[in-house]
UniProtKB/TrEMBL annotation, chain A:
UniProt-recorded name of the protein: Mediator of RNA polymerase II transcription subunit 27
GO biological process: regulation of transcription by RNA polymerase II
Any one GO MF annotation of this record: transcription coactivator activity
Region annotated Disordered, chain positions: 1-31
Primary location group: nucleus
Subcellular compartments: Nucleus
Alphabetized UniProt keyword annotations: Nucleus, Transcription, Transcription regulation
A Pfam family: Med27
InterPro entries given in the database record: Mediator_Med27
Source organism of the structure: Platanthera zijinensis
Top-level taxon: Eukaryota
Family classification: Belongs to the Mediator complex subunit 27 family.
Automatic annotation (TrEMBL), chain B:
Name the record gives this protein: Mediator of RNA polymerase II transcription subunit 20
GO terms, biological process: regulation of transcription by RNA polymerase II
Single GO MF descriptor: transcription coactivator activity
Pfam family, one: Med20
Organism (species): Platanthera zijinensis
Length: 430, 216
């Protein structure tokens, strides 16, 4: 903990030409304005990085359990200091942003002002890349490439944070951190073993194939496949090829069954290595394809879920991806909340509950909203016409009585008792 | 392919078509949140057999339809309504037809208009104009729900969207309404998975209605 200190990077803004008066900057020649703007942008990027590091540190501190009162005192001191630093960063960022806005970097307003010598102010693209000279076409390509890198880094950073601060999703492998935080990460490793996530006692409870067999019995219209993680990515990429040629009805799985990629888990899983299963795919023919990721592999703890159209294929089709269609995008967002709810009520039932709940989406395009009685509704805040994408998840239980209820209900709908709501009609938003 | 419904404008008996209706329809799409996405164009051709010898009775069908769709630039579709047949061919078949001179293009109708994106829906609104004159023959709409390709599964969604559309356009008090006719795809040997051949069948079904509406 002693190693954590305010980095030298968080310096106050270096003295530049008078930043208070935007009018004076406009009196400079355009090349100078562009240079100033570029410099400010790089400062802004540094400040943002500092803020992220600060947020990281604060989160770590919150999760540390101090061993002694002296240490807890130090923690408090440190939190206060970090907070002050963060505040200063935010203030600096705000003033910097104001200057950038005035000088026209964040919008195209400078183009409207004449006499800019043919130079354009650097443009900040929505993905965060900065294009200095709009007429340089190669920079557009660079912006695209940097967007990919940026996204990858951001995803890695967020996934790492999620794993560290949400223990039931924790990885078995030791996660590498930047130098300043090694000391802290070691502490987390100790607390990790106390969690039920990876214990053997959990495996004595329900096994993966039990869960899937139970589900298959309850929802005969849904096809369930399991994959190892790498096999899933191969499948996702091959889907895009097949679908683009309209060669196969996406719910026709004959071609895939013959390969060793997937194994429909219907009977007792004797032959294949169940402890490598990391992805479960649920297909409701012509309606949706849901991808659930398990972590660790072979366990029954889900850590991500996503919905896609049966026509979608490509490398973005995975449990952390988002569909290109609005309807499935919103279902995925809602599914995230449902998954967290199921995880919070019990680790060994969460997978079954989640899969059951996913099956209730078979009726996504046929079941009307329980509140307004219509199938489609215009969502005013999103300006989209959507079917009821929310399904209530609070009343689903794993008890035996539930299964009896299911048998007595209309078998053609399977898990159809879950109430459907439009986003705007949602009764409970928790 | 994503499921599409074709609708045509049924004017009130005694009223005439006007481009005003088209403009109002476009406005309605925009009030629903539609973003203009470009133009669209389809070309429908009525073919009639060329008789070499006027005395010999013609055994093959009297006329059939050829359709060229914007979303399938490399294909051409033939529809024989009386025999319930639809065929997908390469676009070069038109050249072959011209060379063979067995069938002649009698009437060519151009469908052109604008395309809009409304979330997961795509809406096309356009007019039907014969290639030879500028007279407005009809107004057509295509609505498409992109996430689904099964006709059965998307039926309810498209029905409700059509209802929402009818509600919106009825506020404009235009003389007439849009109509959708259910085509019997099974008759043509088509499956539940939607394809451009289904679109061709819908166009053929619409044609009969459209012509009748204009003549009335």
């Amino acid at each position: 903990m002693m190693r954590i200190q305010t980095p030298g990077l968080a310096a106050p803004p270096p003295p530049q030409q008078n930043p208070q008066d935007p009018a004076s900057t406009m009196a400079d020649a355009p090349p100078k304005q562009v240079a100033t703007a570029m410099e400010r942008l790089s400062r802004a990027a540094r400040l943002i990085a500092d803020i992220r590091i600060g947020a990281d540190r604060l989160l770590e501190l919150l999760f540390l359990s101090p061993e002694s009162p002296q240490q807890s005192n130090k923690t408090i001191q440190f939190v206060l200091k970090e907070e002050a630093t963060m505040r200063q960063h935010f203030q600096d960022l705000r003033s910097l942003g104001k200057h950038l806005e005035d000088s026209g970097v964040l919008n195209g307003s400078v183009k409207l002002r004449g006499n800019s010598w043919g130079l354009h102010m650097p443009l900040v693209c929505p993905d965060g890349a900065v294009v200095a000279y709009a007429w340089k076409r190669q920079l557009a390509g660079q912006a695209g490439a940097s967007a990919v890198d940026r996204t990858r880094l951001a995803l890695k950073a967020f996934t790492d944070q999620k794993r560290r601060f949400f223990p039931h999703l924790e990885d078995e492998m030791f996660i590498q951190h930047s130098e300043g935080e090694l000391g802290v990460a070691k502490k987390l490793c100790i607390s990790h073993s106390l969690l039920p996530g990876n214990n053997d006692e959990l495996r004595e409870g329900r096994m993966l194939h039990d869960v899937i067999n139970t589900l298959q019995g309850e929802a005969p219209n849904i096809r369930i496949y399991t994959y190892r993680r790498l096999d899933w990515f191969k499948r996702a990429s091959s889907l895009s090829l097949l679908l683009s040629h309209h060669l196969v009805d996406s719910s026709n799985e004959h071609n895939f069954q013959s390969t060793t990629n997937s194994r429909p888990v219907l009977g007792n899983a004797g032959s294949f290595a169940e402890d490598h299963i990391a992805v479960i795919e649920l297909i409701s023919p012509s309606v949706f394809r849901a991808v659930v990721s398990l972590h660790p592999a072979g366990s029954i703890s889900p850590d991500a879920v996503a919905f896609f159209s049966s026509d979608e294929g490509g490398s973005y089709v995975h449990a952390r991806g988002f569909s290109v269609f609005h309807v499935f995008h919103h279902v995925t967002e809602h599914a995230d909340k449902a998954m967290q709810y199921f995880q919070s009520i019990g680790l060994d039932t969460s997978l079954l509950l989640l899969l059951r709940w996913i099956c209730s989406y078979q009726t996504l395009f046929t079941k009307v909203c329980s509140k307004c009685g219509r199938l489609l509704a215009m969502d005013e805040s999103l300006a989209l016409i959507l079917p009821p994408v929310h399904r209530a998840y609070h009343q689903i239980s794993a008890s035996k009585s539930y299964q009896n209820l299911l048998i007595s209900s209309d078998s053609s709908h399977g898990c159809d008792f879950s109430l459907a709501y439009h986003i705007g009609c949602s009764a409970d938003d928790s | 392919m994503t499921v599409k419904w074709l609708m045509h404008w049924q004017p009130k008996p005694g009223t005439t078509l006007s481009t005003q209706i088209l403009a109002e329809a476009c406005q309605c799409v925009e009030t629903l949140g539609g973003q203009k996405d470009g133009r669209w164009r389809s070309v429908l051709t009525f073919y009639r057999p060329m008789q070499r010898d006027a005395n010999v009775p013609v055994e093959h069908p009297r006329d059939f339809l050829g359709l060229s769709l914007q979303e399938q630039p490399a294909k051409y579709y033939f529809i024989l309504r009386s025999n319930r047949m639809v065929v997908e061919a390469e676009a070069s078949i038109q050249v072959v037809m011209e060379k063979l001179q067995s069938y002649k293009a009698r009437v060519i109708l151009n469908f052109e208009g604008f395309q809009y994106k409304l979330g997961d829906f795509q809406v096309r609104v356009g007019k039907c104009v014969p290639s030879t004159s500028e007279a407005l023959r009809g107004i057509m709409m295509e609505i498409e729900y992109i996430p689904l390709s099964s006709i059965e599964k998307s039926r309810q969604v498209l029905e409700e969207f059509f209802d929402i559309w009818q509600e919106t356009i009825s506020k404009k008090s235009l003389p007439g309404h849009f109509m959708h006719i259910d085509s019997n795809f099974g008759d043509y040997g088509l499956q539940d998975l939607y394809t451009s051949q289904h679109t061709a069948v819908q166009y053929a079904t619409c044609m009969a209605q459209l012509i009748a509406a204009v003549r009335a």
